[in-house]
Amino acid sequence: MTILRQIVLGALLIIMTQTPSQAEAGSVLVLETSQGQIEIDMLPEVAPNHVARISELAASGFYDGIIFHRVISGFMAQTGDPTGTGMGGSGQKLQAEFTDYQYREGTVGMARSMDPNSGDSQFFICFDGCGHLTGQYTVWGQVSKGMDVVHKLNVGEPPANPDRIVSATMR
Question: What's the pLDDT score for residue 15?
């Protein structure tokens, strides 16, 4: 057996025996909300660092009890701020992972300030009319079930009676 062949076979063996992380396995983020359940397919091939961070925050219970503090009819619903004001976060900023993934109904993106590298824990789910955000905000997920629930969220900035994430779990 040639040395090159041994190296290739060894590398394949290592790759085949590694256990994929939650993000690499194509995990689903399940949001149990005050309106019902929303399932978000994570997109690690689009934004691996964001998927890893959202997975970590969900697994730690960070999102449990957080309100949807900004819901704009026909545009998007935003959550992920523990203060409920739109100004808070987890304290860990992420480098932007911009792609050409098209924003459409159910696309989940990372909220940020004017600084592209300021995404933290806040995210938004598009209703429709989000196409102009493509390439400007990191996409990390796509709603696979529960868009009807997203459409039921109380509207406002903040809503008079905000809906909340009861629990966020990884599946």
Answer: 37
- Ranges 17-21, 84-88, 90-94, 128-132: which has the least confidence: 17-21
Among candidates 154, 109, 153, which has minimal Cα distance to 131? Answer: 109
Cross-strand partners of 30: 39, 169
Which residue bears the tokens 């998927």? Answer: 51
The predicted pLDDT at position 2 comes to 58
Quick one: 139 exposed, middle or buried, by C-beta within 10 A (0-12, 13-18, 19+)? buried
Q: Which domains does the chain have, with CATH numbers?
A: 34-163 (2.40.100.10)
45-72 residues labelled b (16+ CB within 10 A) or e (exposed): ebbbbbbbbbbebbeeebbeebbbbbbe
Residue 107's Cβ-count burial label (10 Å; 0-12, 13-18, 19+) is buried
- Rounded average pLDDT over 54-61: 96
What is the residue type of 41? D
Between CA 136 and CA 132 the distance in angstroms is: 8
Instruction: Look at residue 150 and give its three-state secondary structure.
Output: helix
